[in-house]
Amino acid sequence: MDHLKLPVNPQLCQQVRFDERDGQIWLDEQRVLLMQLIALAEFRKEQIETLGLERAKGFFMRLGYSIGKKDAQLALRLSQSKEPLDLIRTGFSLHSLKGFVRVDEQQLEVDQANGHFYAEYIMHDSYEAEMFCTELGQLEEPVCWSLIGQASAFTSALLGREILFKEITCRGCGDNTCLLVGKPAEEWDDVATYRKYFSRSPIIEELYELQSQISVLRHKVDKKSTLGNFRGQSPGFQHVCKLANRAADANVTVLLLGETGVGKELVARAIHDASNRENKKFVAVNCAAIPPDLIESELFGVEKGAFTGASNSREGKFERAHQGTIFLDEVIELSPRAQAALLRVLQEGELERVGDSQTRKVDVRVVAATNESLEEAVKTGRFRADLYYRLNVYPIHIPPLRERSEDLILLIEHFLEKYHAYYSKRTAGLSGLAMQAMMNYDWPGNVRELENLIERALILTDSGEEISATALFPTLSFKASQTLSEDGHLIDSSENDAKQHSTLWIQEALNDCGSLEDIEQKFLDYALDNAQGNVSEAARILGISRPTLAYRMKKMEEKGRKRIRT
Ligand SMILES: [Zn+2]
What is the per-residue pLDDT across 4-28, written as a single tens digit (0 to 9) for each? Predict the structure, then answer.
């Protein structure tokens, strides 16, 4: 191994010109600067403090990289020969000339024909290491960021291929010497990390990205805190809490009854969270959302080849919920075969996948729910009597919102809080009339309707303004037949008000949009905008499954429809 000191070559020194008259300094044909190292150290310190170590590192690596590219041009002009070895050594001499570092070559192997490159350089008195030793304090990792950028850039430019130099030891992190090793980029395992440092990443895009992540997280965090928490203080609500908490301890199968939108899934999740299964999975299934011929395989799994399209074996929701809880909403929609299979799980704790003869054991707590009468369904033969009795051992009736008027204000405050955070705005709350209208409404869609209403009203209301009654109940402005009385009651002034109420907005939508297709497009756009382009979230808003939404979007696209932003 030959050690070769690369001092500043006198010929290179002659290329530095001080132009006193114009106050400029030139290195060959490139204008350069003389500036105090301490100033650069302070600049670096500020960057680390304001942007963090990783970003500061990227800045200086890229600074070195652009210096290195210029050095390659100088080397090509100033080197004695065009031999790769000479060119590269000239490049390192330029390092020294500019006062960055003094270089000892430990090893330099260049074989262009075979694509071989290997280099080791000891860097003495690196200006970067010095900054960290004297001004910035030692780091845990090498600090000669601009030097590796510089070396990587000019060797890559001179050899016409991507060479990456890394600093193996560094005085800036307490080693004795700064040692640089260079190899073709693809020979380093972590080349991707370095490429990232060398590529510019505008911080503003990252900020926007973070901003949108925060708002989604706020939403999620909040969602989580409400899922596990019952909200309310009415006697009806507290009764539900008491029953749910007892059920949680007992591992019993629970049947949740109540109108649509009363929060059955919240209660199911609360039971799960309060049980000793809380660290295992909670799997929620809406049986009405799955086609009847697929429900059995969805719930209980399927073996490869069981039917056309079953190209792989996969586990069903029950296996996935093993040791946890499964929530079967709209359980009344189960096909007869699925009902039989569910009964077996409840009685024996075992199941067979569709098309399989192997029996599998599962340990799953079942919470079922329905808003129709299972008793009626048993009478008409739609639901198995034995399954009904099995499910009905521990029924919990969740009262509709109109029977829990004590909870209304609490819920309104909760949802306002939630959507203020989500939409990053703060309204002045409900106007007096709006509050009265809420109190007098009978909430057929229950808590879910309340939440939707508040979210929509908040979109319509500017920060600092009160939420008006018409923002909450926009249909009020549609027609003269229904108005708000002075004490906040919805009153109808026409005979066939109910029918008109339900059809007027349809007329309005058709007038505005023209066709059903246009209306559908508007709905999709509305949901996608509200979900910030997140398809799953948009599907949730529309109350349809993600595949259904994806299919509809595709259909719209095929028709050449562009999203109309509203
Ligand atoms: Zn170093």
Answer: 777 667 778 888 888 878 788 888 8
| Distance between Cα 212 and ligand 1 center (Å) | 38
* C-alpha 126 – ligand 1 centre gap (Å): 6
Q: Separation of 96 CA from ligand 1 center, angstroms?
A: 15
Of 165, 169, 154, which is closest to residue 76 (Cα–Cα)? 154
Cβ-Cβ contacts under 8 Å for 557 (sequence gap 6 or more) = none
Alpha carbon of 53 to ligand 1 centroid (Å): 16
| Per-residue confidence (pLDDT) for residue 531, from 0 to 100 | 84
178 Cα to the center of ligand 1, angstroms: 4
Strand 325-329, strand 350-351: pairing: unpaired
User: Which tokens go with 351?
Assistant: 């199941």
Cα angle, residue 318 at apex, residues 314 and 324 outer, rounded to 5°: 125
Round to whole Å and give the CA distance between 41 and 127: 9
The encoded tokens of residue 461 equal 């209301």
Answer yes or no: are the C-beta atoms of 320 and 300 closer than 8 Å. no
Distance 437 CA to ligand 1 centre (A): 71
CA distance linking residue 378 with residue 384, whole number of Å: 6
Q: How far is CA 196 from the centre of its chain?
A: 21
Look at residue 24 and give its three-state secondary structure. Answer: strand
| Segment 190-227, tens digit of pLDDT | 888 888 888 776 666 667 667 767 766 665 554 433 33
Quote the ligand 1 centre to 88 CA distance (angstroms).
20
Q: Give distance in angstroms: CA of 378 to centre of ligand 1.
A: 79
H, E, C per residue of 169-207: ECHHHCCCCEEEEEEEHHHCCCHHHHHHHHCCCCHHHHH
Q: Between the CA of residue 183 and those of 63, 65, 165, 191, 325, what are the distances in Å?
A: 21, 16, 7, 11, 55
Alpha-helical regions (H) of 103-234: 127-131, 145-159, 191-198, 203-227
Q: What value does the mean pLDDT of the chain take?
A: 84
- pTM value is 0.47
Ligand 1 geometric centre to CA of 79 (Å): 26
Distance CA 404, CA 236 (A): 7
pLDDT tops 50 at residue 239: yes
CA of residue 128 to ligand 1 center, whole Å: 7
pLDDT in tens, 445-460: 998 899 999 999 998 8
Residue 466 burial by Cβ neighbours in a 10 Å radius (0-12, 13-18, 19+): middle
> Is residue 56 helix, strand or coil?
helix
Q: Give 350 Cα–ligand 1 centroid separation in angstroms.
A: 64
